Amino acid sequence: MTIKLTKVQLFLLMFVMQTGFVYTSFQTSIIEHGKRDATIQFLLIALIFFLQLLFFERMHKYFFLNNVTKTIYLLYWGLYIIAFVIYITYVLTTWAFPNTPTSVIISIFLLVCFYASISRPETAVNIGVVLLPMLFLFIIFMMVAIPDLYATNLLPLFYDRGGTWWMGFLYSTSAFGGAEMYVMLRKYLLEDEKINKKILTIYFTILTSFYLLSLTFTLMFFALEEIRLIPEPILYILHAVEVTFVKRLDLFFVYIWLSWSLVTIVNYVLVMRLVYFEKKRKSPVIQQFIFFAVVGVAANYLVRFSVLDFIKGNIVYVNIIFTFLIPIVIIIVNKIRGRTVSESHTSS
């Protein structure tokens, strides 16, 4: 299976996959460890992410997966999707459907994902477009909370340095998970499409600003002592805001985020399809159904607060390995060996 992407499609896929899993929760971990310096720590990690993008663009021709690394990444993405479905289920049962059995929520959600995933690849590529007006609407709703914010909460900088202060840098990397998708998808870019530093800078600026908005709003809305008790700060902010035109802004955003999450999973499965079905295989629809069935059974069995708490505390370490370290190692090893993506396709 193969596809052809434009620059806009590539970065839309990247944006959805990088934000969909963590946007409602990454603020808590960063602020809990970084305190008032959370924004500084986040921006420094964002700069490292930008340098990584520049490195990936320059060296992407050396990134390809052999059978071992393909298997490792497919397992990683599969477990990542399971973890995300557990988190989605927790959020939906907490905020929107408290009386609905978790098995029903998981089944309906995954059936929609399965239907979208077995469609033409172009459907998965372009489905993210429907999110754009929703995200603009979400930003407008966030602005409604400005009268309830305290800008003084952002000060003083470089002051609150506890024993875990440096962990703020570590947890800031969670906002940039999925960066490996750039080198995964870069080879599918149309030949007449070019990516330069200006385009990468624009994407980096949009992504970082989108994250920074929610991070600074969280810092200005909550006292530091409250942060560790607020797992989804954006939802709590919207829940506290009272407006005349919508009774509960948090529920409205939950439905936006539900669509956002669905598109994220469909896009991750698209990448898995590109890797797994690179060579033609029999019964692709059946194999995808089995995959979603396994995800559903695993998520339904593991959807417990203790499991979710373990995932939130440790998934950042896994992301660093698969998002930052392994892609760089693969590129360096292939560059030393002199193997490129085009050569690997020829040999296969």
TrEMBL record:
Topological relation to the membrane, as annotated: Multi-pass membrane protein
Subcellular location: Membrane
TM region positions: 7-26, 38-56, 77-96, 102-118, 125-146, 166-185, 200-224, 252-276, 285-303, 315-333
Keywords: Germination, Membrane, Transmembrane, Transmembrane helix, Transport
Stored InterPro entries: Spore_GerAB
Family named by the database record: Belongs to the amino acid-polyamine-organocation (APC) superfamily. Spore germination protein (SGP) (TC 2.A.3.9) family.
PANTHER family: SPORE GERMINATION PROTEIN A2
Protein name (database record): Spore gernimation protein
